[in-house]
Amino acid sequence: MTSVSLPPVGSPLDALSVRGVSHRFGDNLVLDNVSLTVPRGSFTVLLGLNGAGKSTLFALVTRLYDNVSGDIRILGHDVRRRPTQALQRLGVCFQSKAIDSDLSLAQNLAYHASLHGIGGREARKRIAKALETVGLADRAHAKVRTLSGGQARRVEIARSLLHRPGLLLLDEPTVGLDIGSRESVISIVRGLVAVEGLGVLWATHLIDEVAETDSVVVLHKGRVLFAGTVPGMKSAAGVSSVREAFRALTGTTIAEAA
Amino acid sequence: MTIASPLHLVPDVTPPRLGLRAYLACFRGIVWREVLRFLHQTERFFSALVRPLVWLFIFAAGFRQVLGVSIIPPYQSYVLYEEFVTPGLVGMILLFNAMQSSLSMVYDRETGTMRTLLVSPFPRSFLLVSKLLGGVSVALLQVFAFLLVAYFWGIELPPVDEIKLFTGFESPGWLEAIIPSMKEPVIVSFLAVPAFLQPVAGYLFVIPALVIAGLMLGSLALFMSSIIKQLENFAGVMNFVIFPMFFASSALYPLWRIRESSPLLYEICRFNPFSYAVELIRFALYGHVDVVSLLVVSACTVLFLAAAVFAYNPSKGLIGRRGGPGGPGAGGG
After folding, report:
1. B119 CB within 8 Å of a chain A CB
2. Helix axes A120-133, A105-114, angle to 10 degrees
3. Is A44 helix (H, G, I), strand (E, B) or coil?
4. With an 8 Å Cβ cutoff, are A164 and B12 in contact?
5. A191: nearest CA in chain B?
6. d(Cα B26, Cα B317) in Å, to the nearest integer?
């Protein structure tokens, strides 16, 4: 399954459906006819090296750029035509920090709940729940600056869950974390997929974050080279490990592929 | 680590419609965050306060003997230069604050903070206006801290027994052409102030003036920093925006004195929207509504806001500075 065929028109069953999306900066074609699907309840890894176009794709899905060619749907809602409905169902963890170090966890989360129109008692209820989910319930009134890097990442995840999205995008969520924090962030997100039925698109260049049961999308130089299951990826490349399959598909050397 | 308890996400694939209450919650959240952040940055609070106080304690004291201010509305008696310059310094607080907060909105547009604001499902125009008003709230705190210090320095506003409408401040030529009576100063009594409010009426009455003037300056700043690339550092803003706007205005000297020395500069000051912001604040502090300034500031606010929302392009910084996020320096691809 190395060829990329257009998936059917985004069904509301899919958390995310991207079809035929291209994007260029000047003469530089950053995304070339990209199509991918994240079904509900699926942990999909968007695998690509730095410069593959992952951040551009995220910018398009989060409606940072308006000039979208092709079609992007979140739970069936077109990002361009029905941005309000689409964005209400979307949770994002960006690469750079979105929480304030000077404020407490609860203050930060109250602000982000309000960005989705949630205030008062309902917000407090959801904040308590979200902090519980990421294992930080007892730190609600601590300032963010007192947290470790891994804990701060978990607050970002709690932040992105407050409005109960159906799709969660994470852009390189484990960069800069030690092994323990990395594992805890990954297992929290995998738990959300299993228990809540969330669709997750996890962008990374770290191949060892791919589990055997995940869906994989390999993005290289703006093009989708493979989309499917992990066993499918290995048999498509005719090798036995994900790392080798990635190298074979992208034609990159050992040094480039982390 | 396991999930402690389900969040029950699935029922919420049809989230509630965003009604008035949701808009209010969003607005309150954005404004409150700006205020909280400001209160946690003590050094920012003091540096914001020191700037106008230096002008008041040193510059104004030095100029007291040089510059006499005759009795012109809204003043009912001869005032010291310190008292005359106070509304101008209030305007300066608004101007600096507007520049700082708008510049950070443009400069931080690719950080997580600004991007999470922009992925909120509310209309982008609403989010930007809320954010600007958050900046204005911070400016209000600075203004009242300044007025409090000024009070102990001897600048006491006289009690206001009634709100008056005033027309006749140096109105722009186009307005005089439409309404000829604008040339003649007219003061009309409008509303009596209850006795218990009279001592603080000026301080209360200035709040709406500060909000609208702050919004005008904030949206102008956002518009300018969105379209002019050179303004992306604060030194450029100081030289090319803040200083010209502040000095070529009625903040430091009455316009009739400027006309005596340079008719050209006088015309420039009359063209400068900051002059009207300062006069709106000056008159409001004495319980007057300066109708001309109110009209000019309101019209400019609407115009600049529309221009700012139109010009603010969150993707521009990515393309402009780094050759696109797919480019070599982008990090994370």
Report:
1. yes
2. 120
3. strand
4. yes
5. B3
6. 26
Give me the half-sphere count of Cα atoms (radius 13 Å) on the Cβ side of residue B167: 16
C-alpha distance from residue B138 to each of A230, B44, B142, B235, B268 (Å): 52, 11, 7, 22, 30
> Which is more confident, B317 or B147?
B147
Interface pTM, i.e. ipTM: 0.88
Per CB-CB distance under 8 Å, the chain A contacts of B333 are 48-55, 205
Report CA torsion sign: A89, A93, A98, A103.
Answer: positive
Report the distance separating Cα A126 and Cα A117, nearest Å.
13
Alpha-carbon distance of A122 to A120, in angstroms, equals: 6
Contact across the interface for B112 and A64, Cβ inside 8 Å = no
Q: Do B25 and A97 touch (CB under 8 A)?
A: no
Q: Which residues of B touch A97 (CB under 8 A)?
A: 111-113
Chain B residues whose CB is inside 8 A of the A222 CB are: 326
**Shortest alpha-carbon distance between residue B54 and chain A (Å):** 29
CB contact under 8 A, B26 and A115: yes
B201-227 helix and B291-311 helix, angle to the nearest 10 degrees: 30
User: Pairing state of beta strands A43-47 and A199-204?
Assistant: parallel
CA distance B291 to chain A (A): 37
What is the rounded CA–CA span in Å between residue A182 and residue A149?
10
What pLDDT score does A44 carry? Answer: 96
CA–CA distance, A101 with A146 (Å, rounded to integer): 8
The C-alpha of B41 sits at a distance from chain A's nearest C-alpha, in angstroms, of 8
Q: Where are the beta strands (DSSP E) in B72-195?
A: 162-167, 186-192
Tell me whether residues B5 and A129 touch, CB distance under 8 A: yes
Interface of B with A in 195-224 (CB under 8 A): none
Q: How far apart are CA B285 and CA B166, in angstroms?
A: 13
Q: Each residue of B23-48: pLDDT tens digit?
A: 999 999 999 999 999 998 888 888 88
Residue B318 contacts A where some CB pair is shorter than 8 Å? yes
CB A51 within 8 A of CB A70: no
How many residues in total does chain B contain? 333
Beta bridge partners of B163: B191
Structure confidence at residue A5 as a pLDDT band (50, 70, 90): very low
In DSSP terms, B165 is beta-bridged to B188, B289
pLDDT of residue B171: 56
CA A7 to chain CA mean position, Å: 20
